[in-house]
Amino acid sequence: MIDLYALTSPNVQKIFIMLEETGLPYNFKPVDVWASEQYAEAFGKLNPNRKIPVIVDHEGPGGKPYTVFESGAILMYLADKSGKFLPKDTARKYDALQWLMIQLTGVGPAFGNFTHFNLFAPKPNDYALSRYKTELLRLYDLIDQRLLIQRGKLMEIGDVQIVASRMTQEDWSSFLSAVPPHGARFVYPALAFTERYAPGAIPEAVLSALAAHLAPALREWCARVTLVEASESNPRSRSGIGLDMARMLARSRVERARMWLRSLFPRRWNLVKRYPRLAASPLYPLCYLLINLDRAWHILMTTLEK
Ligand SMILES: N[C@@H](CCC(=O)N[C@@H](CS)C(=O)NCC(=O)O)C(=O)O
Question: Counting atoms of ligand 1 from 1, which one is nearest the CA of 71?
């Protein structure tokens, strides 16, 4: 059994989501940081840095209790323990870890600093505000691109981090005005998952914006599919989330066609990377077709269903 010391902030939501997804049994141990409970002597023994989240795994390494603090380290520990969300293959593992690092060192501090200068710092502070706003918007764009490119691999550990990145109530309100409309189309599905895995954690104002911006079909899809099913392991199509999301998000036929074409790209790239000589042979188009047959079938079926 794992004890999770936490409250409701986005940093701890990452851990709730991970525990739910891995299916590891856990107890929630609330630590009210607004009431300074992190400064209690007993908590200081768990985390000298006096921040949540912290976990205590009573069946840790060697069967002994083990304490982990820092959300990134906790995610890696849980991934190790469950064997989920962190691929064994070295390249894929570091693909995931580098995005985890971006969340920890980029998203967290930039969003936090933006909130600080936006809401709390004495005015005027135009330079600081503009610096962090630029960085925040740049990161949203980066995340959009990542979600777009990743598709089927959306829910690896680094992405779970990004889905529920560290936002306070104040961050949420600035979020609503800061996310560009095109970004909302990709960030909001992640919020829909967060809403589901951490009910009550997202303020009402954000939920109504979610309802306004997220296509009803996509909301329904987020409500139906688990993070695991939405991942690459979805047997229906290796791009699972990509195709369904593309279909639901696309605003025009041209855009839909472009997204489908783009979603084929990673598989073609894998084929060429793995079998470089094949790419030069006349067999290549046939192999390409075969390897994408399930995808073509999925597209055909979902189009016919409409
Ligand atoms: N780098 C830490 C940050 C954790 C963090 O900032 N936790 C906040 C809640 S989200 C906290 O405990 N704040 C209380 C305080 O700073 O005194 C992590 O990723 O775990």
Answer: 20
**Residue 48 CA to ligand 1 centre (angstroms):** 12
User: What domains sit in the chain, N to C, each tagged with a CATH number?
Assistant: 2-82 (3.40.30.10), 90-224 (1.20.1050), 256-305 (no CATH)
Averaged pLDDT, 263-292: 68
- pLDDT exceeds 50 at position 157: no
Q: Residue 123 and residue 25: Cα distance in Å, rounded?
A: 47
| Probe target for ligand 1 pocket from 52, 78, 167, with the most ligand atoms within 8 Å of CB | 52
What pLDDT score does 260 carry?
Answer: 61
Cα-based distances in Å from 273 to 93, 95, 277, 279: 18, 16, 9, 9
What is the tens place of the pLDDT at every residue in 7-47? 877 788 788 878 877 889 999 898 998 889 999 999 999 99
Q: Is the pTM of this model over 0.70?
A: no
The 10s digit of each residue's pLDDT in 54-66 is: 999 999 999 999 9
In this predicted structure, the answer to whether residue 154 has a pLDDT above a threshold of 50 is no
